[in-house]
Prior knowledge:
Chain A is mainly alpha-helical. In chain A, 52% of the residues lie in helices and 8% in strands. Chain A has one domain (11-72). Chain B has helices at 252-266, 268-276, 296-302, and strands spanning 6-10, 17-18, 28-35, 42-48, 52-54, 57-58, 63-70, 72-73, 78-79, 83-87, 96-98, 102-108, 116-117, 131-134, 154-161, 168-174, 178-180, 183-185, 190-197, 199-201, 205-207, 211-215, 224-226, 230-236, 243-245, 307-308, 314-315. Classes of the chains: A mainly alpha (85), B mainly beta (333).
Amino acid sequence: MVKVIEHKLSREVKAWLKREAAEQKARYKLIVEEQDALSPKRDKWVAEFLERIQTRGFNVHADMRRKIPASEIPKKPRRKFKVVF
Amino acid sequence: MARPHIEPFVDRDVPFKKMTLPGFAKGMQYKMLSLDTDTGAASMTVMFENGFSQPPGMSYTDMEMFIMSGYLESDEKRYTPGTYFWVPPGVSLPALRAPRGCVALMFYNYAEPSFVESDEDHQLAEREHLTIVNAYENMAWTGTNIFPATATGCLVKILRFDQRTQAFTFLYCMTPNFSQDNISYHDCAEEAYHIWGTSWMMQFGNLPTGGYFYRPPYINHGAFACKLGTLALGRTDSQLYNHFHFNPWSTPEENRERAANRILSWKPELYRWIEQHGHNHPHVPHDFEYPNEGDPHAIAHASGVPHDHGDGHDHHHHEEKPKRRKKKVSRKK
């Protein structure tokens, strides 16, 4: 199926795309900053999640759960915990 | 870079802007949700002002539109909230008006937003694919029918399904008190907009009404929870499979490698054929959940254990030794 019908981009369209790309870059930067600031809360949520999957269970499929033994719980790596890529 | 990872973004935090691209009628405003900086493909929240009207016309790429509030009307029909359009490139839509204003989501999939006035289809248009449905009035909620599945309380209405890529656009809801204790990632890019309601993900916190994300493949999201219910529109760019796990810290690269390893377990014959092109030298993707499991030949190969290549001769590879550099001998004149 045809995805794009060939056409030329006018100068106005190119300028619009450039402006929008710059704004998106700024928006992305802001998102990364906001998400970095959320780190302490996220660490707490992760600890609670790891606790829940050991007690109530991990959703393997739909409502089917498996209790994860402590030996299977992953260790936090030394690298920075990134959530936005 | 195509589209970056935009998550979370709440469009309520930014004002509408006038649409200034050539061709579009006056009275159209938009908020950019995400943009593919290579192709110009874009996802936007769009507001058609009271009294907006546009002539018949088409776009150069396929366009999806979902009406959230208000309505659009042609001479023959009124398109109310819940109406979803999938308009192939070059297919001409009739003149549309918004007498009392209208707010919609619009997606231009493979090129920048465009509008070309025309009451005829372009010669390359494939009108038979034009889809217009009202998701609120004519469709029933179903389970996700993807295995492994989301927990009970996550329901979908499939608005469009691409047979070739298995990409789909869907309305989804989470019922009050929905929760799911796993982390997911997919092989596809995923995009969603909250029409109403707030849901929570362990990585990103709360996503309220007007919340949006564009998430490239292999990025962790979840656990999930929703207190009061959520109604949202979602899209993928290819087949969605729920790779569930419980390692909060795995990276997209590790997730991708694990996904490849899992295909080796699920479809070993197909995997070998694709990966090895008839020669049994498999690359062994690593599954962080099962570091010591997988194809025995592949493991033997990776770990340098002698093994048979089907020709009766034992065979193994040693790690390549770094080449020694020859010392330069300076010649005295």
